[in-house]
Every structure is written in C-alpha cells, then in structure tokens.
Amino acid sequence: MCAFEHHNSLSIGYVALKKSQNSLERRCRRLPRRTMAAVPSRFLLVTGPPGVGKTTLVMRVFETLRGSHPNLNIRGFYTREVREGGERIGFEVVTLDGRTGPLSSCKVSRERMRHNEGIFQPSRKIRPEGIEPGSWMFDEFKNFCNLDILTHTIAFWFFCSPESVRWPTVGKYKVDVASLESLAVPELQVKEETDLFIIDEVGKMELFSSAFFPAVMRVIESNIPVLATIPIPRQGRDIPGVARLRNHPGAAVFTLDTGNRDTMRDTICSQLRSLLQKR
C-alpha cells in the first residue's frame, strides 16, 4: 500500500470514529433529560422579590390540593403580616391547622421579653475583655459581621447584650425566636403519615433559631415532597442557609414575578399532584 492510500485509510477511520463518538455524546446528553422528566423534583422552592406574592401562591396551592385531595396530611406553616391602623408592625407564624404565634414585631413589650427570659440563658459575661459597646474594636467587629448570617449570629452571642441575644433584630423588627421554635419547628417533624410539607419561609428571621434550619434539612432529606419559599439574594448576596437550599441538588427553583403567578401556580400544583400520586 502506498503512503497516500495509507493516509487516506487513516483519515476515513478517524472520521468514522469521530462520528461514532459524537453519536454517543448526543445519546448521553439526552439520557439525563429523559430521566429528569420522568422523576420530577420533590423539593420545590419558590423565590422572588418582597411583596410579589410568594405566600399567596403557596396558600393557593395548598387550598387547591386540599380541595381536590381532602384526605391529604399536609404539615407546615406560613407567615403573614400583622398590621395596626394600616401600618405593618410585624409578622406572625400560622400553622396549616390555624394556630398562630408572633414571629417578629416592632412593638415588643417588656412583659413579653421577661416572659421569654428563661428560654435563652446566655452568660452575662459574653463579651471578651477590652471589647465594649462604643469602642472602635466593637464597631469594626459589627461591620465585619454584616457579611452574612453566620457571622451576624456569632456577633449576637459574643458581643451583644443578653436581651439582644434573646430578641435579635431584622431592621426595625425584634424576632421572637422562642415563639417560632414552639410553634413552627414542631410542624417540621418528619412522620411517615405526612404527605406534603409547606414551609413559608426560610429567611433571615427564621434562621436566628438554632433549631429551625436542622429541622428544615431533615424534612428535605426525607422522602416527603416539600414546597418552600426563600427570599431572593439582596444586593447580590445570599444568606448562607438560603443559598444552601437554593443550590441543593434536588431543588427545583421557581422564580415568581407579577407576570407568571397564575401559570406558576398551575405548574407547581401539577408537579405536586404527580408526586403525591406516587406515594
């Protein structure tokens, strides 16, 4: 065989091999899409800007499913505004069976603070010597602790007054951690008879509770469908706990806006019905 014929034979073989490789790659790329379509995610996350209607959407989905499947065992909670004279003064937690409790308020009475005093018992000496409120070191540490929720929580435990530890603040609101843990956290107990969990929401206020996020993770790692809401990143920065949920490999994230609310509800209802039929 001459050199030209040998080179031509190698070229033909290379082209055939390349075609076979491309065909295999196309088949492999198609396989995950078919698998994902056949097995929809059981962890549904709704996100969107404040006031867009995340809670309204979740409650409409809940009412739709309860209307079509009255025997479903749905556990969880949602949050709603508390208003006084047209002004929002806080938020409250509402369980799906109708029980309510305060989540946060800008009008927390001293009596309520004293009532919850026995629940959190941090040491009176919780600031290292030399770092006192008003000092430059204290101010520098507070600026550093604005980075994320973890350092913010550390700041409360080590540098703030005992009252601030029991009643952390988000903006003008004081968060009632004890109320959240006594009402919402028990609703997140994983039980075999539960068909669906609804969690509205996993946000900055809720994450001040050391018991809340582990309870959420146990729910997600169970085999029970979950519908939850999370806030959007603020100024491009996500709360670490929220980011962990958003990036969870089993999560399907739905971004809500004013133009897709109706279609989003139908999509989520359809996906949950499909999941519930397989249980």
Q: How is this structure best summarized?
A:
It comes from Zea mays. The protein has 279 residues and is an alpha/beta fold.
Order of helices and strands: HEHEEEHHHHEEHEHEHEH
Q: With helices defined by DSSP (H or I, 4 residues minimum), what is the helix count?
A: 10
According to DSSP, the number of beta strands is: 9
Q: Class of the domain at 43-83 and 181-277 in CATH?
A: Alpha Beta
The N- and C-terminal alpha carbons lie at a distance of: 67 Å
Question: Any idea what the radius of gyration is?
Answer: 26 Å
Mean pLDDT: 78
- The CATH topology of the domain at 43-83 and 181-277 turns out to be Rossmann fold
CATH superfamily of the domain at 43-83 and 181-277, by name, is P-loop containing nucleotide triphosphate hydrolases
Shape: globular
Low-confidence stretches: 3-8, 28-38, 119-131, 155-164
The class by helix and strand makeup works out as alpha/beta
What is the strand arrangement across the widest sheet? 5-6-4-3-2-7-8-1-9
Query: What would you say the CATH architecture of the domain at 43-83 and 181-277 is?
Result: 3-Layer(aba) Sandwich
How would a textbook summarize the main sheet? 9 strands, mixed
Q: How much β-strand is present in the residues?
A: 15-25%
Helix content: 40-55%
